[in-house]
Amino acid sequence: MSNELLVLHALRCVGSTGTARVASFTGLSESDVESELIDLAVAGLVTHHKGFGGWALTDAGKAADAERITAELERGGARPALKEAFDGFLVLNPELLDLCTAWQIRSVDGVTTVNDHGDTAYDDRVLGLFVDFHERALVVIAALAAAVPRFGRYEARLGEALARARAGELEYVADSIASFHTVWAELHEDLLATLGIQRWGG
Fold first, then answer.
1. What angle do CA 23, 29, 34 make, to 5 degrees?
2. Rounded distance, CA 116 to CA 119, Å?
3. 27 shares a domain with 87
4. How far apart are CA 77 and CA 48, in angstroms?
């Protein structure tokens, strides 16, 4: 996948955003992202809204990304294998959402409260569950990457987020643009966009 298509597809998956989020999604430097965005803007595929979310796809950009991503999928005859691997993703997805809830909210003496991360034993238990989840997620990502190789980059992104969280950078669980939860959500959107599935039905 070209850098141009990487940047175009990033905006399709994450929505209106700034260069930092696109760089996190694509693995490109912010300067390279900005250069691609300018070229895409000249081509009429993206637009920039000052103070309102940053860069976003135009209607032409959405159509161009959909056409190119579909061509990528159909060219290798990968749709059946990717759809099968997506089914495996959907089995894990509710568990990830539950884990994120457990990380952010907990019960103390029968009262539900925001987790202030003062109880390291509790946090360690939840992080242990994330580790177990990650091991099973890697099996699904391997199947996704076998169908469409670019999905393999999510392995490193999720692994880095989990490693940083376990090293004490707790925002990498669910509270940064490179957090485990954010990367997983981007993977979900990427799969939906690639397969042409509307989030609410379709």
1. 75
2. 8
3. no
4. 35
Task: Give the pLDDT confidence of 38-93 residue by residue, as tens digits.
Answer: 999 999 999 998 766 799 999 999 999 999 999 988 888 999 999 999 999 999 99
Alpha carbon distance 107, 111 (integer Å):
5
Place of tokens 């250069």: 35
| Contact present, 41 and 3 (Cβ < 8 Å) | no
The secondary element (H helix, E strand) that includes residue 105 is strand 105-108
> CA-CA distances (angstroms) from residue 112 to 109, 126, 142?
8, 16, 37
Return the SS3 of 56: strand
Q: Does one domain contain both 66 and 141? A: no
Report strand pairing: 54-57 vs 105-108: unpaired
